[in-house]
């Protein structure tokens, strides 16, 4: 049997170990002298989440779509008896102008769907109302959701209105550069054609405007190498000259207005016209003017 030995020596005291910090606590001292322990892992996760989380940007409000342009009945077009109303969901048969087209009688009232039909996953209906059916026969029976007047003969849509555009130009040794100030020109619908002595313009805008003009050029151009650019605010023409003669004006009509004068940058004698208010011609041009 093992017995404990008695001794007069004081027991050895091991030095105390620094407390472990299993949670990686960060120590800070507050203003009143107290120690505050905070988990570094929590701080790291919080900071990383705040850095990785993108800042929510405000969502710009979407503009509502423009209202659909509905067809109108052209009262000037005669309609045969028995013609069906062209509006979706109506199907009313024409009897007479007095009953179905003129005045405000009951026969002129049309109940229809202004929007096109929609077929999705077997259900059928119209975009303008919520009702959906499965059978096609039931789809044909869906009553209209809007009230208006019948359309037996569609009125032709109004064409674009003619407008004017400012035209400027300058020339280099081998080209003439023309600027047509046509803001918001439609690239897909605009047509520009080059010929040896003219440019045919047909510029359609994104609204209901149109600019048409034929420019009879004062000099010949190479139609194959001449080009154009449609920009946001203007249309640029780059006309390739057939020769290197200077163009006094762009169009022949302008040449008639000013007369057949030569373009010079100085005249004989001690006087000139550059910057002057009075035109002074040299001897050769004085003969033409007379």
Automatic annotation (TrEMBL):
PROSITE patterns according to UniProt: CHORD, CS
Annotated spans, Disordered: 1-71
Keywords: Metal-binding, Repeat, Zinc
Record has Ribosomal protein as a keyword: no
Residue ranges of domain CHORD in the record: 85-150
GO terms for MF: metal ion binding
CS domain residues: 162-251
Comp. bias regions, Polar residues: 18-27, 41-51
Matches recorded under Pfam families: CHORD (PF04968), CS (PF04969)
Biased composition (Basic and acidic residues): 1-15
Ranges in a coiled coil: none
InterPro entries: CHORD_dom, CHRD1, CS_dom, HSP20-like_chaperone
SUPFAM superfamilies reported for this sequence: HSP20-like chaperones (SSF49764)
PANTHER family assigned to the protein according to its UniProt record, in alphabetical order: CHPADIPLOID STATE MAINTENANCE PROTEIN CHPA, CYSTEINE AND HISTIDINE-RICH DOMAIN-CONTAINING PROTEIN 1
Name this protein carries in UniProt: Chord-domain-containing protein
Provenance organism: Armillaria borealis
Lineage of origin: Eukaryota, Fungi, Dikarya, Basidiomycota, Agaricomycotina
């Amino acid at each position: 049997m093992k017995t404990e030995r008695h001794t007069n020596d004081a027991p050895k005291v091991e030095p105390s170990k620094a407390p472990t910090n299993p949670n990686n606590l960060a120590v800070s001292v507050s203003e009143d002298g107290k120690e505050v322990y905070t988990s570094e892992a929590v701080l790291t996760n919080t900071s990383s989440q705040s850095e990785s989380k993108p800042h929510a940007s405000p969502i710009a409000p979407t503009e509502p779509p423009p209202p659909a342009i509905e067809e109108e009945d052209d009262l000037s077009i005669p309609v045969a008896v028995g013609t069906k109303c062209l509006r979706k969901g109506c199907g009313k048969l024409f009897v007479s102008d007095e009953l179905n087209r003129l005045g405000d009688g009951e026969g002129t009232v049309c109940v229809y769907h202004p929007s096109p039909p929609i077929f999705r996953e077997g259900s059928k209906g119209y975009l303008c109302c919520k009702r959906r059916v499965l059978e096609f026969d039931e789809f044909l029976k869906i009553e209209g959701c809007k009230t208006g007047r019948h359309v037996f003969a569609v009125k032709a849509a109004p064409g674009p209105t003619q407008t004017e555009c400012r035209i400027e130009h300058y020339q280099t040794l081998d080209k003439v550069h023309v600027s047509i100030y046509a803001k918001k020109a439609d690239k897909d619908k605009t047509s520009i054609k080059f010929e040896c002595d003219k440019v045919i313009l047909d510029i359609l805008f994104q609204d209901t405007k149109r600019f048409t003009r034929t420019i009879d050029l004062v000099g010949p151009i190479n139609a194959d190498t001449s080009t154009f650019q449609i920009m946001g605010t203007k249309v640029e023409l780059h006309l390739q000259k057939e020769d290197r003669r200077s163009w006094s004006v762009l169009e022949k009509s302008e040449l008639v207005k000013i007369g057949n004068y030569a373009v010079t940058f100085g005249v004989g004698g001690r006087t000139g016209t550059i910057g002057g208010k009075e035109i002074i011609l040299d001897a050769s041009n004085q003969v033409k003017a007379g």
